[in-house]
Amino acid sequence: MPKPATQRPTLPSVGRLGLIEPPARADLDRLGWNTDAYVELLWSLSRAPDADVALRTMVRLADALGDGWDELNRALVKDRGLRGRLFGVLGSSLALGDHLVANPRSWHLLAGRVVLPTAAELRETFASLAEKSSSTSDFRILYRDRLLVLAGLDLAPTVENEPVLPFPTVGAHLADLADAALGAALVVATRSVCKDHKPGAPGPRLAVIAMGKCGARELNYVSDVDVIFVGEKADSVTTRVAGEMMRFAGEAFFEVDAALRPEGKSGELVRTLASHVAYYERWAKTWEFQALLKARPAAGDAELGAQYVAALMPMVWTACEREDFVSEVQSMRRRVEQLVPAGVRARELKLGTGGLRDVEFAVQLLQLVHGRTDDALHVASTVDALAALGEGGYVGRDDAANLTASYEFLRLLEHRLQLQRLKRTHLLPEPDDEEGLRWLARAAHMRPDGQHDALGVLREELKRQSLRVSRLHAKLFYQPLLESVEGQTVEFSASMSPEAAERQLAALGYEGPQSALTHLAALTGSSGRRGRVQQVLLPTLLDWLSDTPDPDAGLLSYRRLSDHLADQRWFLASLRDEGAVAKRLMHVLGTSAFVPELLMRAPEVIQQYADGPKGPKLLEVEPDGLARALIAAASRQEEPARAIAAARTLRRRELARVASADLLGMLEVTDVCAALTSVWVAVLQAALDVVIRANTPEGGPPARIAVIGMGRLGGGELGYGSDADVLFVCEPLGGAEESVAVKWSVTIAEQVRKVLGSPSADPPLDVDANLRPEGRSGPLVRTLASYEAYYTRFAQTWEVQALLRAHRVAGDDDLGLRFLLMVDRVRYPPGGVSTDAVFEIRRLKARIDAERLPRGADPNTHTKLGRGGLADVEWTVQLLQLRYAHQIPALHSTSTLDTLNAIGAAELIAEGDVDLLRQAWLTATRARNALVLVRGKPTDQLPGPGRQLNAVAVAAGWRNGDGGEFLDNYLRVTRRAKGVVLRVFGS
């Protein structure tokens, strides 16, 4: 040991190094790491999962090395890889630290260029030792040395930026190591039992078949190794060799478990191949064939092992034809889960809900069902099987990838927990054991993500991964469609008990499983072809519905649609023959209350859910073309009522089309707003044409009339719940007196509002003229001259601001254009608006902020009037228009987004601020539209956490449908936008 330095150098504090225990500084002194030459080494130590444990073990290792410490010390300074591997191991594994202290020269195994030996090299190393020694101590050291090397490579990324070992590599190497150890144990056992056995001479022919994780080559660091013995003879000598091999391996390496053999622990330890075949042909239970999925010759007689696999594997792939196969596998899974004590179920990585066993059982069941006809599924590894299932289409590619990622994450945590003391465990630390969980997070390569420290990241990941596994397990493992392999009719409610069906539906996310069963019974209870088709479709439809925010509402809507379209053969045929139609329909039904009501009255839109030659048929309709068709359809009707009905029909279809495409992520929010505006404009034009035609006297109309869109209608930015804000302007025709022209025009305007606002099952068509001069107390219709006189003499600041969004939408084009040219002089005055007007706008905005928010509304999440919401952004844009539009013609736009682009191009405010306002407007508009789609009626308030918020997130196109993440993003975006609003309004 070097003597401590007498002068105290300037080094990082022990706290900064992650060392929290009082002896830490003294330990550094004892190691001689108290000079500037060791600063980099100390920072590496600080990144160990438990720096205190690593430091204490280093002190013990230095004591054990004695004079050899200087060599290690020098190597640590020079060899970054050694630092990463050594400190990673010592900060993660107390047991391997003890091994190093007991065998201090083994640190050399971690130095220099370290690579994993091949399976052949491992077998050769262990076989060589087996020829020379029968000492369990020698073999234990060799085995721990090999674990040390693997763990060093596996843990190095926690300390240094070393490559991460893929999970399959770790599991496969551990299995190779187990094979080599089993082979060596068999050699030693044969020599011990057969006293006259000579080196190199053949012993009893005995094959060791690896089962479970070892057989699948995805072994844990610490695990029982499951085996089955196959002997040429099942005599006493062969049985004694097998028993001695198990004993020796248990003392030197790991426990060897032969309980998976025929008849379990009560059965013969060794059987001949013929005996094995006879047992599996006559007596084996379903779970035994499931276990054989992993069978692989690991040691002993290779030829006999290959014969065993060749004889039994064909039975595995026909096991699904056995009576009650699926129900037996499912029952076994439930029994396994019930064995876990309730108190530790949430901490159990392996057997708990959302744990490893969920993944393994689901995958194995699918393999057994489909593997009888697909050789690509004849693989042992869970990861390989998931890849094969995804490639073969039995599991969605995304589901396969997600389940693989979750499985590997849970296995990584399992490995870290086992490495700590080299004990077999699957239990996470107690929830209040923050130090234990923090250690686990660091050992599993987790780092702070900006919102959470490593511990927070671990907790979030555990929750997310467990929920994902639970969902996917329910989706894959309990598929009623699988019961068709039993030769039964695929009736969801008849193929299992009501209790089991309710459990399944609850696992799939149904909050009212009893109601769901009632719907299913009604859907499948129809006689004849319709009922049979529903029986085939429902398992898959339920599967897709389970992925939606509200599967209960989705199933109810599906039942209503099915009943409504009972006589329409195309409906079920489309769902059966067009997978895209069925999947998209389930997504829409399980997300929206708005669209299902439209589809009940416009079911033909469902056929547009299919894909055409150029993509989804939902996108084949051009909004402008639809608008022309709507106006033409109305014009062909003689009676006003029929004309409006025709317009409503086409509007209903267009709403259903646009909303469906929106929910399915096919349209940008700007496209949605443009399409909704286009159909509103068409409806207004159709209604105006119909009413004028019905009220035109013999001598012709006494006036021409134009409809000016205001607000969102004028800006081309309507949402699903938007009214149509309008102004009506008229002009006498043919020498008619102004009073006659105005009176007639008022009649036209009133009837347009009446016919469009009449009660209907469709979303309302409210025409709002309250932005006219003098508001509700002013005349409904004015002449162009009257408007000009009013705006020139009496226009208030808010009215000038409202005119910024005025745009002609229906009626006489020439009159509408002249109206806009007239108001241009009002809204874009040559000298700009006065300072007083700007002050008045700011005062009005402050008043709205203080008074207009509805009682009980949350100002942070009100999409229209809340912080950084639509009103904030639009008022900011309009203030800039009023101040600068007289100088910058590009600001002469009624569109909020187009004007924002012009503001940025003119550099009126920073481009970053423009982007913040743009993102806030788009985010709030998406959210506001999503609220209508989800709830079925207009609202501006985002809900709190829960199912409805998740549905809004999905409807708004949030990437993973996580309501919490969606809300966090909304709050972040609008908060930043509010900062811009405050700066602009205050400048």
Automatic annotation (TrEMBL):
Residues 331-477, 844-978 form the PII-uridylyltransferase/Glutamine-synthetase adenylyltransferase domain. The keyword Metal-binding does not apply. Residues 491-987 are annotated as: Adenylyl transferase. One of its GO terms (cellular component) is cytosol. Residues 118-308, 583-820 form the Glutamate-ammonia ligase adenylyltransferase repeated domain. Signal peptide: none annotated. Keywords: ATP-binding, Ligase, Magnesium, Multifunctional enzyme, Nucleotide-binding, Nucleotidyltransferase, Transferase. Its EC number is 2.7.7.89, 2.7.7.42. Its cofactor is Mg(2+). GO terms for molecular function: [glutamate-ammonia-ligase] adenylyltransferase activity; [glutamine synthetase]-adenylyl-L-tyrosine phosphorylase activity; ATP binding; ligase activity; magnesium ion binding. Involved in the regulation of glutamine synthetase GlnA, a key enzyme in the process to assimilate ammonia. When cellular nitrogen levels are high, the C-terminal adenylyl transferase (AT) inactivates GlnA by covalent transfer of an adenylyl group from ATP to specific tyrosine residue of GlnA, thus reducing its activity. Conversely, when nitrogen levels are low, the N-terminal adenylyl removase (AR) activates GlnA by removing the adenylyl group by phosphorolysis, increasing its activity. Belongs to the GlnE family. HAMAP family: GlnE. NCBIfam families: PRK14109.1. This is Bifunctional glutamine synthetase adenylyltransferase/adenylyl-removing enzyme. The lineage of its organism: Bacteria, Bacillati, Actinomycetota, Actinomycetes, Mycobacteriales.
